[in-house]
Structure formats: structure tokens, C-alpha cells
Amino acid sequence: QAFFCLLLCVPWGSSCPRSCQCTEWAGVKAVLCGSRHLEEIPTDIPKDAVFLKLDANSITKIPSNTFRHLSHLEELDLSRNAIEKIDRVAFKGVAAGLRTLDLSSSHIRSIPKEALLVLNAKLQLANNPWHCECDLQVLWEARLDPDSVQDITCHMAPREEYVGKPLLQVLDAGVNFCSVRQRTTDMAMFITMFGWFAMVIVYVICYVRHNQEHTSKHVEYLKSLPSTQGHAE
């Protein structure tokens, strides 16, 4: 916080997004776009930015290659937004050098594992409505912020017993969401196949009964006809 206060004191003379404030201190450049009512991430962020704050806006998604030109970026703050969708290659171009990524207090339910696997940054993911599923299994290996890890809780999960619990606590107990989903899929397929099989059996039974009734009525009809011998007499 003190560092950013110093940055605010030194204006940045180069180009800067109109909705942001750009500052520089000791050769370190920061772009401050917090609380600017932004609905999208600006596309004209200077290439040599080291710090980028986009917190407290109304950003709903992080598209592909959004930060690809920001090779010097080390800290990225996207907290307190309305993010719901993160593309698989959203952090392409900055994943190697990024040291801190804040995605806390948003609307994120899931992050593609391809986007997480490339990140070496310390992640802040607390206070999001997480759907604990297979893609989040990779968080077991991610660098999570230890101060907020207990606030990464399961808002939805394959089993009711996991809902409301810290994600890492569930993973630490040996739960594998990928295998849980596979078992759920297998069970759904089994139920579907059983349903189709039951329909076929019912159809065969109805068909046989219908034929039996039709044959019985035909036999009774034939019996009711006068015999050829009677006509001859």
C-alpha cells in the first residue's frame, strides 16, 4: 500500500488509458484502473507496465490473450469484479513473469485448468462461488495465498457433504473430483441404459399380449362359423 501511495505521487508521462491513472517510481511503472466502472479490460495498457490494478469494477470476463503484450507485468489485481468467464489462454504472455494474481471476491465458479497450469503466480481466489469439480483439482498443486486459502470454499459440489467446506480441506481428505464426476457419469449412463432396456421389455410384453388376444379372438371367430359338413347336410 505504501508503495502504491508513492506511485500516485509521480505521474507517468507516456500514454495511458483514458479511464486509468499511470504512475512511475524508480523505473517501475504502474497502471491504476480501480473503481472506474469498467466493464471490459482496457486494450491500450502500456507494454512496460509492471503493476496493473483493475479492482472494484464491473468486468465480467477475461478473454483470450488479453495480457499477451504485457511481458513485464508482475502483479495483476482483478479482485471485486463480476468475472464469470476466464478463457483457457487468458494469461498467455504474462504467465511466466507474473508473481501475484488476485481474483478474489468476484463471481468465478470455475477456471479452466489450462489457464491455471501455466501460472507460477501466488493466487488469491477467496470469496468466489466455486463449483468444486474436475478443473479445480489442479488447485492442489497451485501456489495459493496462505492468508486466504480457507476462504476458497465449495459453493457447489458433486456431493452435498462438500458444500460450504474449504476446497483444500476437501482435497486434503483425498477427494478426487475427476473420479467423482466419472462415477456420476457412469451412473447416469447405467440408469439411461436400464431405462431403455425396461422400455424394450415393456414393449415386447405388450406386443406378445396383443398378439395373444388377437389370436384368441380369431380362434373364437373360427369356432363360431358353421362347419362345411353342416352345410352339405
UniProtKB/TrEMBL annotation:
PROSITE patterns, A to Z: LRR
InterPro entries (UniProt xref): Leu-rich_rpt, Leu-rich_rpt_typical-subtyp, LRR_dom_sf, LRR_TM_domain-containing, LRRNT
Keywords per UniProt: Leucine-rich repeat, Membrane, Repeat, Signal, Transmembrane, Transmembrane helix
An example Gene Ontology CC term for this record: plasma membrane
Keyword Hydrolase: no
Signal sequence interval, chain numbering: 1-22
Organism encoding this protein: Balaeniceps rex
Transmembrane segments: 187-208
Annotated protein name in UniProt: Leucine-rich repeat-containing protein 3
PANTHER family hit by this protein: ANTIGEN BSP, PUTATIVE-RELATED, LEUCINE-RICH REPEAT-CONTAINING PROTEIN 3
Pfam hit, one: LRR_8
Localization per record: Membrane
